[in-house]
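Try this one yourself first.
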């Protein structure tokens, strides 16, 4: 599943004309941005892609709207179509591409927005988990999300207080989008390693210093992920290079780059979790 850096990379590509690496089939392809483009019609190839409103309502309401801006909230791609807002969640396998209308429809294309200039924005989703919402107020979809990791109001003291309001293991808590928005399996493992915190550590066992170090580590790994265009580790997302800089994620059995201890993997909340048992001692925070 794309996490904050991958979604941020997609948002950047939709805002500015760039050489875009995440097109189906790989490679770099010139892609225009979508800001300023007016929607002339939409094609929906799998009705359940549209969460809200009905397919008929979606088709009628979006026609004639112009993309004013593209942004991100957590893992959501947000298109400002004033007065309405289009939200896209890519889930496990979603991908977005901008192309000429004359291009062939691909097997897993689920929805396309066709613009007046004969280009289109296509949502491709192999596993069919992704969804789109067309709403008057984005908060109706994103209102329960926790703060963004880069929110300037999320200072260490606030983060510490939020951690101590919970009594749960730190790794699953970082994956909870209602606690903090945008972090997934990759970047939580990498941040916990950088902060030297074991993933099984209870959140309310962290000291103020450790909470501050963890917040800093979260921001550092996310910023590095964005700078490297995210991580490319499956059949959809290509072009990012952060996977070449993992310290623990998917490095089971390989030596820790700090101490040489083999990286271990466990299942936590049905999610693969990677850590160094020497650098991230369980109980060191208690």
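Now uncover the answer:
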């Amino acid at each position: 599943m794309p996490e904050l850096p991958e979604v941020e990379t997609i948002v950047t590509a939709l805002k500015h004309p760039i050489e875009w690496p995440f097109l189906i089939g790989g490679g770099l392809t010139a892609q225009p941005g979508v800001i300023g483009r007016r929607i002339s019609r939409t094609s929906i190839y799998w009705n359940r892609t549209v969460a809200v409103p009905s397919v008929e309502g979606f088709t009628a309401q979006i026609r004639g709207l112009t993309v004013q801006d593209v942004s991100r909230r957590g893992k959501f791609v947000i298109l400002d179509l004033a007065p309405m807002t289009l939200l896209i969640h890519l889930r496990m396998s979603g991908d977005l591409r901008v192309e000429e209308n004359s291009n062939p429809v691909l097997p897993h294309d689920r929805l396309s927005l066709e613009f007046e200039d004969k280009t289109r924005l296509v949502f491709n989703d192999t596993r069919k988990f992704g969804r789109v919402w067309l709403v008057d107020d984005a908060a109706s979809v994103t209102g329960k999300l926790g703060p963004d990791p880069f929110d300037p109001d999320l200072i260490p003291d606030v983060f510490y207080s939020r951690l101590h309001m919970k009594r749960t293991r730190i790794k699953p808590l970082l994956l909870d989008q209602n606690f903090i928005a945008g972090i997934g399996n990759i970047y939580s493992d990498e941040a916990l390693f950088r902060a030297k915190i074991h993933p099984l550590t209870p959140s309310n066992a962290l000291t103020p210093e450790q909470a501050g170090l963890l917040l800093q580590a979260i921001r550092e790994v996310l910023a590095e992920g964005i700078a490297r265009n995210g991580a490319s580790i499956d059949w959809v997302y290509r072009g990012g290079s952060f996977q070449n800089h993992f310290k623990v994620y998917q490095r089971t059995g390989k030596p820790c780059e700090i101490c040489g201890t083999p990286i271990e993997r466990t299942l936590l909340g049905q999610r693969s979790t990677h850590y160094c048992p020497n650098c991230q001692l369980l109980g060191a925070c208690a």
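Discussion: Residues 21-28 have pLDDT under 50 and may be disordered. The CA atoms of residues 26 and 238 lie 6 Å apart.
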